[in-house]
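This part of the workshop introduces the protein records we will be handling. The question running through the whole workshop is how a given chain folds. To make this concrete, we reproduce a full record directly below:
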Amino acid sequence: MIKIIDERQLIRVTTRRNKGRIFICTPNGERHNLACNIIESVLLSKGYKVYNASPSLPADSIINSLSDIFPDAILISITLTDHIQITRNLIRKIRTKFPSLTIFVGGIALNDPNKTSDFNVTNVCIIRNMILADAIKLIRSTIARTQIT
């Protein structure tokens, strides 16, 4: 259903100004994509070009995709706390190749601060316990700031 809505949205959105390119992915081993598809749909409706690589690619494949796309931001979705270290490693690899790329990390794995209090990564925006509308506003304002500079 989401894909059908997206196809109809894409027709309407193509006449609008592109607000930026966003790459959505999950760390290697994650097998979810419903949340990623919903975020993709909302971002498409707001005028963004979205590349959705969920569910799960190896880190090297993500880096290669980023090299081809040159997105304005990357969104990483995590559902399992067991994948937090894998996500840290992915971010480290992304930072090596793309030091200034805006990175957002969110998902249910980050909702419990007791389990993820040590998930502090430099220059990464953590989306924790936030409703979708507020997360989209945060993404929009952050991308707008980085496009100006």
